[in-house]
Structures are given as structure tokens and as C-alpha cells.
Amino acid sequence: QIKATLARLSGAGKSGKFAQRAKLRRQKRDDVALSAEEAALEEEAQSKVLKVTEFVTANELANMIDVPVTKIIGTCMSLGMFVSINQRLDAETLTIVADEFGYEIQFVKPDEEEDINIEEEDSEENLSPRVPVVTIMGHVDHGKTSLLDYIRKANVVAGEAGGITQHIGAYKVTTSAGKEITFLDTPGHEAFTAMRARGAKVADIAIIVVAADDAVMPQTKEAINHAQAAGVPLVFAFTKIDKPGANSDRIREQLSVMNILVEDWGGKYQSQEISGKSGLNVDLLLDKVLLEAELLELKANPNKRATGTVIEATLDKGRGIVTTVLVQGGTLKVGDPILA
Fold first, then answer.
1. What are the backbone dihedrals phi and psi of residue 324, each rounded to the nearest 5 degrees, phi first?
2. Euclidean distance between CA atoms 64 and 51, whole angstroms
3. Residue-number span of the structural domain to which 4 is assigned
4. Which of 37, 44, 128, 228 is at 20 to 30 A from 106, Cα to Cα?
């Protein structure tokens, strides 16, 4: 009888332990299931939050919430607003329209947007010499476009409205020595200050053109300031040297007042007297540009994903968004997706 009682007590103890373990396992499974459910709900809530900068177009908003753009336009119309496919929506409109589709808008500054890591560390053996990127900057009518026209052997001057370059274009040329240079054609008019600053930031070297029969103008000073702020080396081209009244020493003197001394006057900045129309000394100017490029030891890795800068973008009715892109690293291939 005593043995039977002990056996029952022992069995009850074991079954109690098993029951407790089973209970713990069930609780653990329930906790895991609850955590997964909470994570799913949180993920769903996050997916309903759109992080945008202000002034997103109707088409961009439609892509974000994966609905036809006609529905966005229709919603705007029902709210008494008439918008086109590429019209930018202000903050209030964005919030109202997104709410209609069950989304919450969160406005962020451009520099607060989530960064996507596209920078890849390059080892020295993967780097190859790359073509220098040169921007020609200066005051309107100081011969900037004529110089670039002579270098490219193409007639851009006639195609400009009122003689003013209103876009930034990129062109690659090969010098008589067989070396390549990529030129950025940046506007020289004061109305295009922002674009001119953007042109300087993607360039390796800046050629500052100053007409020898004129003077250092406010736009010239501004171009110099943009280049210096971006840490871009300067080469000065004194244009229109073949015109009556041309006096490059006057320009050198005016530059010296700005603490810019050219090599002819014992300074560090290279300069060259040229004529954009006749091409006088243009080859010497390019030699000096290539010399500056050699000192910079420009290199890039061609065997990786392409990275670069969008120089300009236009909307083409037949092709959609068309961009001019300067590839600064890697290789851009046909069919590659572009994230800007």
C-alpha cells in the first residue's frame, strides 16, 4: 500500500512537470504569434505612411500609392481642384488626397530622406584614370559659348535664344593630343544663378572667361566664388584678345584686387590669352587644363554600379522624362534602372 501511494505521488509529480512544460510551450507560441501579429500591424501602418518632400506631382503620388493617376485627378476634381498629371500638389492638397486613399503624409526635408547606400569602397587596383570634367563660366557676351563652339566644332551660338545659354549641356571632345575632356556648358547670365552653381559642383576644373576688351563683371566674380566654394581649380581665359582695345593686363589687375594672381604675375592661377572666334591659342588653353587635370590625378572604378549627377531633365511627350546624366563612377549600361 505504501509502495502504491509513493508510485501515485511520483506519477503525479511527473505529470505536473509535463503539464507545466506544455503550458510554457503554449505561452511561448502565443507570445511569438502575438509579436508576429504586432510586427505585421506595425509594418502595415508604416506602409500607409508616405514620406515626401513638399510639391509632389499627381503622377508621383499615384505611383507611391499604386493607383492610376486618373483616380488622383478624379479625387482632386471631387474636392473642387483641377490638376494635370504633372502638376505639383501643395502640402495641404497632398494631405487631403492621401487621406482619401487611407494614407498618411509625412513631410521631410530633402536631406532628411532615407539614404540609400550607393557608395562602394574602391580599392586602388580597381581604379583607372578618368576624363576630366571642365566647366566654362563667365559673364554673358564674354565669349564663353564661342570658345566652346570652337572647341566642339559645332554651331551652338546660332541655336541660343537671344544669345543666352538657358540650359546646361555636357559634351565630350578629343584634343589634338588625343586626350579627352568633358565640357559642361553652364549659363553665364545672372538669371541662371542656381544652375550655374550646380554646374560648378560637378566639375573638376573651371575655365573662367573674361573678355580682354571689357572688365571683371559681377557675374564673373560670382562664377569665381561658386568654383572656389566647390573647391574647383581655376584656369583663366582672356577672350577676344584680337579685338581693338583688348587689354589683358587690366583684367589681371582687377583679378589681383580679388586676391587672385595669375602665373604671369607670380601667382598660382594659370591663364591664357585666346580668341574664341579664330581659335588663337585655344590649344594652349586646353594644354593648361590637361596639366591641371594631371595634378588632380582623377581616377574612377569602371567596374561597378554607375553613380553620377543629373545635369538636366526634360519631359518629352513621346518618351517621358529625359535626362542628361554625367556618370562620375562605374559604368551605365542600357537597361539599367536609374534612381535620382
1. -100, 120
2. 10
3. 1-40
4. 37
